[in-house]
Amino acid sequence: MISHPPSQPGGLPPPESLSPPAMYGGQLPRDHTQAILEVTKHVAALLKQSGQPFALAGSVAAFAHGVPARFQHDTDFCVRHEDADAVIQALEAGGISMRRAPEDWLVKGSSGGEDIDLIFELARKPVSTELLDRAEVKAVDSVWMPVLSPTDLMDSRMAALCEHYCDFGDLLPMARMLREQIDWDRLDRTHRADALPDAFLYLLERLRVIDPREATP
């Protein structure tokens, strides 16, 4: 289950979450990294107000766990498919422009020129209550929100590896920074039969980021 600081039993801290943070008078900062953080905080505040379960994902989630900021072109949130309509309504009511995507596993939004992805499927599996329950409440640039656990975050990144996208360099910093927080045995069991994720785990062994795995019988 999500663990909450004791000062706020049964809810997300702190009281500032009761209203979405102001975004510089309606204008996002010019710096792309800070702009992504402002949009992330705004969306998280709206989602907390809606009462729908969610978790921050992607590069901003990695940042929340301590990985240096290296944001992509958007901010990602995991929500259950059955909550999609309620979540979209809450974000639109908060001034977020939403649109359906060609893919059936996400919905896209935008705010101040920055993109937002609501993801219904992660690591080739539907976003579930169990996945969201494993999220950890973290402060993202002073706003508290549930963030995918390090293991689930790495699982999602490894599942995305394919012949058209195989950038280990993007995963190595996360593996090094979060290695003590990741259940590598679980990832080995999940991905050993998949060539590219298994190759990444082998690379981590050779670089001594993780301990050698037991050979498959």
From TrEMBL:
This is Nucleotidyltransferase family protein. Signal peptide: none annotated. Residues 1-27 are annotated as: Disordered. It comes from Streptomyces subrutilus. Gene3D superfamilies: 3.30.460.40. Residues 1-18 have a biased composition (Pro residues). It comes from the Bacteria.
